[in-house]
Task: inverse folding
């Protein structure tokens, strides 16, 4: 089925004198129509589907103002081959949905990349890169891109971020609360899958009973934490921000178009939200057994993901109405296919007022409904609208999303200035913004809230630090993931300026002076300890007991700490390469000083 | 910013109350628990974003039932100025959720007698 497409792709790259087109973007729009037609034949398309995002990105690219026509090799032959695949797929029912979807993503990825590198306009290029990034994520991600998997990625990131302060009660509380939400969601989905026969009953039962057991353990954990003193320190804020952001993403209303088996798949692949790690963080003994069992069951699923049968399969396999390639293409936004031209695109960064945003959201929702609805049984929003007009609504919906994204594009550039791998980061942010434009609900806040929502979305994307393919972004010179300011000072920069280097040298000299000023009885054991001598050797050398040596070293450190205490207006640079987060560490220290009784310092832990 | 002072202490109280309600309903697997979790997620993020400057206490928190926790949280949220919606984008959702949860819990308690 795909041989002709493969052949044409090879020709596109290797043919010495290919036929040319005067308008690459027009060719590309037509090709995207064919790709979307194939995707439609494979099943319903959610707004998070990479092909849906590619279509939106293409709309954005095509309607970028003042883009000149591009002379390039024609995509006509590829397009014809794709149209044949679409026709073939519409006529058959025995295709392998998963394999064909993967092949389609690969073909689309290769093509959008080919088009992007031949597009000279930077703004159009940025749009195309967004489509490429969405496909890249879908190809390389262990699970399909979905709101659930994005939330779980944020959750995993939050669990990693709170490790340096794992003993703090706020960590145990926030993690237990967040994981309870994940467990309840998992319970509902597993239960549903079991009832629908999508999961083997013994497997589902084992999963359900362990989920309940782990929830009981979290209940015990929460019952032991005194919440009265939580939420007042910087460390509390840092932890709550990390975990709260992830929990908010996980507990929000699921995207209606996201199939429940996709959500369950993402949860199972994540070991139901890293149950073992959560059990270790909460420290409740009864949690370990259930978490380990859940982890085993998740592993079992990973070795055999087909045990989760596609519960929406009957609906997805309904053969679509056969259509001529041209008729199929006419469903997509193409002026040449009889779709009325739309309003010209907005200038990037245009500030939209409330009514405009509301109108764009309405157009978007109508477009989404028109793209997935059955003409025989239209949803309420489409009743009374002639199905002949639906392709136009789809096109207007994509234009509306492109306009919403276009209005906030400058934020992406503001966020990515002087960022390493800027193209990749921008591509990911465009994808995030397109997702946000599809998700934004003007009735939840106010239409004017779109800009704030978009800003928060791309900030969260940056904070998460991991793209949808699970690749950790380089943060060497990026802003700190958690921006906690001390006093009036801005958060730390990752690179010291020359003044700070001098200041640091002075600090070292200051430490040396402070050590010199210590009484000999404290200085000698401290210096021996700094050299790495074991406690017993220090005690023997200086002629007193090991406990005395231990006490004197601790006392020396206390005196040094008081002497060298960093005041809020000093020492705002901390090396980025430290093994633990210095902000959290310092915040933890302040917290321990404020509430020594609620969080006793482990005597075995070396003083900082 | 709206210029209306943020009720950070009250936000912290709501966070405590909804954390407690989540704990008390940890053995529930229905839609009601989902709503409580969503409300808890909102309040956790709100409390982190708008940190209280001092530790906050809810007297008798551990003796409250889930319904009482939700009712107290609902009352707290209703004391907040609606103009804060610009600073707290999830405020409307939280109000709706708490009202729904309160009604559902009330009817459950009623049915149980």
Result:
């Amino acid at each position: 089925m795909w041989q002709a497409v493969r052949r044409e792709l090879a020709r596109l790259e290797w043919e010495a004198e290919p036929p040319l087109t005067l308008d690459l973007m027009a060719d590309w729009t037509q090709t995207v129509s064919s790709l979307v037609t194939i995707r439609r034949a494979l099943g319903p398309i959610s707004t998070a589907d990479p092909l849906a995002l590619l279509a939106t990105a293409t709309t954005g690219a095509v309607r970028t103002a003042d883009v000149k026509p591009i002379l390039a090799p024609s995509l006509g032959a590829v397009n014809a081959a794709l149209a044949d695949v679409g026709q073939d797929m519409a006529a058959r029912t025995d295709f392998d949905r998963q394999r064909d979807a993967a092949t389609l993503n690969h073909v689309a990825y290769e093509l959008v990349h080919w088009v992007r590198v031949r597009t000279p306009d930077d703004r159009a290029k940025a749009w195309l890169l967004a489509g490429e990034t969405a496909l890249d994520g879908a190809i390389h991600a262990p699970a399909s891109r979905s709101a659930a998997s994005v939330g779980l990625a944020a959750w995993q990131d939050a669990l990693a971020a709170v490790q340096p302060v794992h003993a703090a009660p706020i960590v145990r509380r926030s993690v237990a609360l967040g994981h309870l939400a994940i467990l309840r969601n998992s319970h509902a989905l597993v239960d549903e899958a079991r009832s629908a026969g999508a999961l083997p009953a013994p497997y589902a039962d084992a999963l359900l009973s362990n989920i309940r057991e782990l929830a009981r353990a979290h209940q015990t954990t929460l019952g032991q934490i005194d919440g009265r003193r939580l939420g007042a320190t910087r460390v509390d804020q840092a932890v709550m921000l990390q975990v709260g952001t992830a929990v908010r993403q996980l507990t929000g209303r699921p995207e209606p178009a996201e199939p429940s088996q996709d959500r369950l798949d993402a949860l199972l692949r994540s070991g139901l939200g890293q149950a073992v790690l959560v059990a270790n963080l909460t420290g409740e003994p009864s949690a370990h057994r259930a978490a380990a069992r859940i982890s085993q069951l998740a592993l079992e699923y990973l070795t055999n993901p087909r045990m989760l049968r596609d519960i929406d399969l009957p609906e997805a396999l309904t053969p679509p109405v056969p259509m001529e390639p041209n008729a199929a293409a006419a469903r997509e936004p193409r002026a040449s296919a009889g779709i009325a031209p739309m309003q010209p695109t907005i200038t990037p960064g245009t500030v939209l007022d409330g009514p405009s945003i509301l109108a764009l959201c309405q157009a978007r929702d109508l477009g989404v409904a028109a793209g997935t609805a059955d003409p025989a049984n239209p949803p309420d929003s489409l009743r009374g609208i002639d199905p002949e007009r639906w392709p136009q609504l789809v096109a207007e919906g994509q234009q509306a999303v492109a306009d919403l994204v276009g209005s906030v594009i400058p934020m992406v550039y503001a966020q990515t200035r002087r960022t390493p791998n800027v193209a990749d980061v921008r591509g990911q942010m465009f994808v995030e913004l397109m997702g946000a434009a599809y998700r934004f609900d003007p009735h939840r806040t106010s239409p004017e809230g779109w800009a704030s929502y978009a800003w928060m979305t791309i900030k969260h994307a940056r904070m998460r630090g991991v793209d949808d393919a699970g690749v950790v972004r380089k943060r060497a010179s990026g802003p700190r993931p958690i921006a906690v300011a001390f006093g009036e000072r801005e958060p730390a920069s990752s690179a010291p300026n020359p003044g700070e280097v001098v200041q640091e040298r002075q600090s070292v000299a200051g430490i040396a002076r402070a050590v010199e000023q210590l009484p000999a009885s404290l200085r000698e054991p401290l210096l021996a300890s700094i050299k790495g001598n074991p406690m017993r050797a220090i005690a023997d050398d200086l002629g007193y007991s090991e406990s005395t040596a231990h006490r004197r070293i601790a006392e020396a450190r206390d005196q040094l700490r008081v002497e060298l205490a960093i005041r809020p207006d000093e020492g705002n640079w901390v090396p980025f390469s430290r093994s633990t987060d210095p902000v959290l560490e310092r915040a933890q220290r302040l917290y321990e000083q404020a509430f020594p009784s609620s969080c006793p310092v482990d005597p075995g832990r070396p003083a900082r | 910013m709206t210029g209306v002072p943020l009720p950070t202490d009250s936000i912290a109280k709501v966070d405590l109350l909804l954390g407690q309600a989540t704990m008390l309903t940890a053995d529930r697997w229905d839609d009601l628990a989902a709503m409580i979790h969503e409300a808890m997620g909102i309040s956790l993020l709100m409390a982190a974003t708008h940190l209280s400057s001092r530790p906050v206490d809810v007297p008798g928190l551990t003796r409250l039932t889930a319904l009482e926790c939700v009712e107290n949280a609902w009352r707290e949220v209703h004391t907040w100025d609606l103009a804060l919606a610009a600073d707290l984008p999830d405020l409307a959702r939280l109000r709706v959720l708490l009202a729904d949860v309160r009604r559902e819990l009330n009817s459950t308690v009623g049915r149980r007698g």
Notes: The longest helix of chain B spans residues 91-112. Chain B touches chain A through 39 residues (CB under 8 Å).
